[in-house]
Amino acid sequence: MSPITILIAALGGEGGGVMADWLMEAATQSGLPAQATSIPGVAQRTGATTYYLEIFPQDRKTLAGKEPVLSLTPSPGNVDIMVASELVEAGRAMVNGYVSPERTTLIASTHRIYATVEKMQMADGRFESDRVIAAARELAKRSVLFDMRKLAQESGTVINAVLFGAMAGSGELPLSREACEQAIREGGRGAEASLRGFAAGFAIARGERAAPQPPAPPRRATELEEILQLGEERLRDYQGERYAALYRARMKPFLGGDRKLAATVARHLATWMSYEDIIRVADLKTRRSRFDRVRKEVGARDGEPVRVIDYLKPGIEEFASVLPHFLGKRLIAWAERRGKLDAYNVGMHIRTSGLPGYLLVRSLAWLRPLRPASYRYREEQALIERWLGCVAEAAKRDAALSWEIAECARLVKGYGETHRRGKGNFLAIVDALIDNPPTASAAEQAPAIRKAREAALADPEGKALGAALGRPVVWLKPVARA
Description:
The protein has helices at residues 16-29, 60-63, 87-95, 116-119, 129-139, 148-155, 159-169, 177-186, 191-205, 224-239, 241-251, 259-273, 278-285, 288-298, 316-321, 325-337, 355-365, 375-395, 399-407, 416-435, 442-458, 463-469, and strands at 4-10, 34-39, 49-55, 81-84, 105-109, 142-146, 309-312, 348-351. It is an alpha/beta fold.
């Protein structure tokens, strides 16, 4: 007989270690030899912590004193039960060969917590969930897939209890339901909520209860009128009615022409005009809706305190962005000459759920009325006007060309180094292919702009864009030398 091999991949705070302890406790109570090890994951969501267990499915009494030799590490193709607390972790396990159609039961939650590599992309870098689910059904001997985070929230517990219930309900564990539930009770605090989550996961895995329906993906506005309305609402919330009126005025020249172009400009203009600065970040972090969302995500009950600590690392650019324009410009120029743009970033841990921390961050949000006089505001508005002028001029020549130029607004986003790179890529394309195009033919200019834009979105380092343009992309002025 061979041991039952179990590999668990769980993110921080999801109770993967507790679940491994439950399995070990249930196996011990059942008289089965078992062994567990763990490998810590990497910070910033580049990998989960993995727990590997082997349970020998024969009672110690029948072994007559013999002890099975159990392994400390999993090997590809030799995992009986693969458990993933998030969908892309299931995909990572399949890529690494831990899911095989001859042997493996895959149990995974279908919700998403986006990985750092997805967030780093200049464009939409999210992995396609449907591809992971399709692969799971093809590569696993059996797959148990549903939104376990939602079920955990409904049960008032953590996702590990639902995962444990799904494992027990799958019938692949050599453990009884009673032994699993007793192991949870032995855990003490929060046992009743964990048992509710366990029962829910168990029933779905057994087919006794329907899995919760996945939430509908956010619908993207496609009609011009709807985009304009949403844009105005966004900018009214960002800076007030006068700013929303500026948005309407900027859109007016495009409303009588091509509707596809107008919709594209309206979407990108609203996003660009509501650029991220420390005023915006401070405002969003101190809204009541944000604290309500955090309480819901951690499953806090009424009356239970929740501590929220925000990790910030502002630097020269963030400080200069809210200064009056002439001061901010001089500070940035000084930092660029000396190569000091990233030299003075200060790491801060601020408890925004407490009064001192909340007031400190909220005081930055109160600078909103002063934003129009700030350095970042003036710089962004000038760049926006330049972009709009390029789009309007191209619209007189060719619809496809104007649309490609309008899409270039996707390059400018974020703050700090991300914004610096995006702005540099945008200006490189404008200078090389729009203001000084190598050809006068719109039919040739449009695909060249598209190719350069896609290269910039695919490679934030700028090497692909440099190759597309035939010259290196420079984001910063050269550092002055003594």
